[in-house]
Amino acid sequence: MKNKSVVPFMLLVGGAIAYGLSVIFKRFPTMPPAASAEAAFVDSAWHGLLVVEGAVYAMVMAFLLYCVFAFRARSRDEQGDKFDHSRGHFVEVAWIAGSIALTLALAALGTHELRRLISNPEADIDIEVRAQQFSWEFYYPRFKQFGAKLFLEKGKRHRIILTSKDVVHAFWVPEFRIKQDAVPGKAIPMIITPTKTGEFTMMCNQLCGWGHTDMLATVEVLEHEQFEQALNSEF
Amino acid sequence: MTDLIFGLVSGVGAFVLGSAVLGRLLGPQAAAVLSYLASLLIFLAVVGGAKALRSYARGAHPEEKHGLARYFSFDVDHKVVGIQYTAAALIVFLVGGLMALIMRLELARHGLQFLSPQQYNSIMTMHGISMVIVALIATAGGLGNFVVPLQLGARDMAFPRMNALSFWLLPPAVLLLLAAPLSGGLDFGWTAYAPLSTQGSTVGKIYFFLAFITAGFSSIFSGVNFLATALTMRARGMSWTRIPAFTWSVISAAIIQIMGTSVVAASLIMVIFDRILHTSFFNPELGGNALLYQHLFWYYSHPAVYIMILPAFGAILEIIPVYARKPLFAYKLVIASFLAITALSFVVWAHHMFTSGMWMLLKLPFMINTELISIPTGVVFLAVMGTLWRARMRLDSPMLWALAMTANFLIGGLTGIPLADAPTDLHLHDTWFIVAHFHFTIMGGAVFGFFAGFHHWFPKMTGRRLNEALAKTQCALMFVGFNAVFIPLFWLGSHGMRRHVADFPAWMDPVQTFASAAALLVAASVVLFIFNVIRSLRTGENAGDNPWEAITLEWKAPSPPPHGNFKTPPVVDRDPYDYGVASKA
Amino acid sequence: MDAATATEHGWREDEGGRVGLWFFILSEILLFGAFLASYIGTRLGNPDCALGTVVWPEAGHLPGLAMAASNTLILLTSSYTMVRAISRAEHADRAGFRANMIATIVLGAGFLVVKSFEYALKISHGYYPGSELAAAGPGLSIFLSYYYALTLLHALHVIVGLAWNGVALYAAAEAPMADVARRAEYAGLYWHFVDVIWVFLFPLLYLI
Ligand code: HEA
Ligand code: HEA
Ligand code: CUA
Ligand SMILES: [Cu+2]
Question: Which ipTM was obtained for this model?
């Protein structure tokens, strides 16, 4: 705390920790494997947060631990050093400036990814997903057809229009990183662009009553041909 | 004591009778509301409200009581009220904790063990709401009522009778809450979102909302009381910049209590009307709006989390200088941050609604406002670090609790940012990542902070000392156990464990089982705590007036302080944290 | 309100009561504020009951309006008698205080009586949530929801105010006049607040 050279030092250490974390999180994923184009935006915001906050956490904890070991009283009559601010309030100013900078940086990153998430409302396929206690209905206007599962076509932009007959439910597929409540009296659109074929579980993610636990459904992402025939062959 | 028994008997009697008789005419729900109002008034009147009102009308002073019995009576002494609050908070904590244990047992592995989803939801709801009440009343209500007037050098609170009233509103609320799951169950979680909460016609849900409103009024009254006390009852020389941090934090919390609580009351009243008068506030078919509830609810319930945490911040910032033997670092900045948090807390509520389908453009301001709160909150950590630097730390139990709280809340706070961040919240909303986040803030922050304050002021409250060895073991046990329970839950949450479910995929078993086992450690630490308290109350060694060599006013009074607190009105002539010796360097 | 130690800021102990009461009223304002904000928001967002159009169906509207208007007068008068009561108390005039306070209480009770007749009238026309009429029209249903919620809530506050005034009146029985004056002042502050709320409700619920 004595001289101002702590600031560049802190920046260096913080940067190093952040970099180390970013490497680690590449190796050991902190989320299920992504399966939608939208997931990319969420994940980049997520990783930005993880590394910055990891660095903040590491440094604050290191400081606290150091103090606990370094500044013990050996006898009860020892007294601490009598100061209630740093020289010229340098530390206070630096800390506040730092946290403002970090906060704004994180907010900027979030804003950027949010914009990318909601900027483009165009879609290739419309699907009406209707929630009710305690089940889901998938209606395909283009095929005038209900789906037994939620069939999606790989690589296409789907506009899923969520409605609810009774209470608030929510649509969530962890691999898609997308979540949206289905609110009675509203029809809420949501864009999903799956990038991997295969089956995923979609779950109701808003407490909607006794049956909430079991309000699950399957999402199946198919290539173009299978998608078409799956919906034409229905019933 | 007799008043209390009569009060309970007549109150409960009136309630049962009223529900039975009126139920015939108006249907069970409306009957429940009316007979509850009646029985609440009867209970309050019998337990001592009537006497207090008469003495008020007569312009007389409230009567002074003595002996153990006053702790079970409508006593107006702020120290009694404070201890009543603390005891009540601990009891509710045990109940809520018991619910938590039941939940953890059910969640020990996938599939349903011994609870049906219904029972799980009810227990989870009870756990949530009772623990929220604990977090709201333990530090601000319990320690606050006891300590704040002492720290201000006042004889008592500004409105002693109203103070007793705010406490005695709580037992009816808690009793009603306990009756709720037995009367049709609670399927909606502590947030009780409409229209789920307006569905059906079981009286249990009505009980829940009545209890919530009652607790709300208690909270408003004590908020008013604290503010009036701080404004008008300060000792000579107690200028704004000499008020200790803890009292400042309670003042900030009080501001939130009076500015927010009545708004949530509005939404709860709407639900009750929707249920019994067939109004359509939350029913879209009849012109209502389902999101209105969430907006009104979170307008209060977000600031409410700062009602929980601010006093905890105050407590640890009060404690750390005493045991670090140093002045509090950046005192004025800390006070400013408390007030900044108070102000900001009212403009962030929709961060609970990022996925609710509210107007897209609202996401941005709410995301940024929320993240701004990390700046004043960061100042609290700055103060802790600055105070520990070049300290001469005494690691007595209160200090350990304070340090543990700091470590926990750092995690809790930092994990709040990804939730505040609209894109990542799309993934994290209503997952166990949030469960972990708020246990690290509420339990790791507010409850650990309460324990810190409890160990710090216990000698003042009772005149006796807790056993240090036991206290330290409990702290270590709870710290380890708590972190072991909740750190894995972050991972579970981000990998797809959603909230409010009794069952989950099998691959989560190892983590869940581990968390359940760790919860037993926490339980053990709680048992240890109860043992320690009972033991010291019976045979604890005499504490003396100032066991920690602290200099704030409460330590100038005898322990436990007599009626009127100070023999002579104290005069304040120094700053609250005037510790340490100037270094030669 | 017990003896406070004087502070350098020169507060007198009785000020504690005034300060506290203002804080309490602040939170009451927020309670009605929440309802009114939701009410305005609903009517702005909802064409079926858009602002500017009186939602009340013709039948029985004018009698109801008349009752509400007279109720407004009653409350304003009661505020006046309340002011007199307080000043009488401050001049240590027990009898005068009693007379005016009783007048205030009677007027307040009168308000409740008129209000209940108005409710009866509206219900007789089927203007209440859950009636077929309301079930037919979403606009009417939500409007009636707010109408009844706000007026019932206000009526509840009138009742509390009456009780409070009753305490002040009871105080006049034995307490020294200085204390009576203070209690009257607090009761009065709250009573004026209740009246002011009504002055807001009347145009919002009946005229626009
Ligand atoms: C102060 C706040 C607080 C505290 C301290 C706790 C403490 C704990 N909480 Fe809880 N919790 C909440 C507030 C809190 N919680 C809230 C608000 C929710 C959300 C609810 C909702 O979504 O609606 C929640 C939800 C919640 C969930 C998620 C439920 C779900 O979404 O499906 C879980 C799951 O593990 C959990 C676990 C625990 C555990 C294991 C503890 C442990 O730390 C508990 C430790 C305490 C004990 C173990 C007590 C031991 C007592 C005894 C041993 C003696 C008992 C004797 C008698 C009663 C006489 N809590
Ligand atoms: C005591 C209680 C408490 C506290 C203090 C907090 C503090 C915070 N909370 Fe938390 N929260 C809850 C209790 C609490 N929360 C509860 C109970 C819920 C769940 C409700 C429910 O749905 O049941 C919840 C849910 C919740 C959500 C909703 C998630 C969702 O439902 O989708 C969000 C979103 O923004 C959030 C954010 C935050 C933030 C940003 C803070 C901030 O105040 C944290 C600020 C602190 C720090 C950031 C750390 C210290 C700062 C520094 C070291 C400075 C440097 C750091 C940076 C620059 C980043 N919380
Ligand atoms: Cu539907 Cu939860
Ligand atoms: Cu919040």
Answer: 0.94
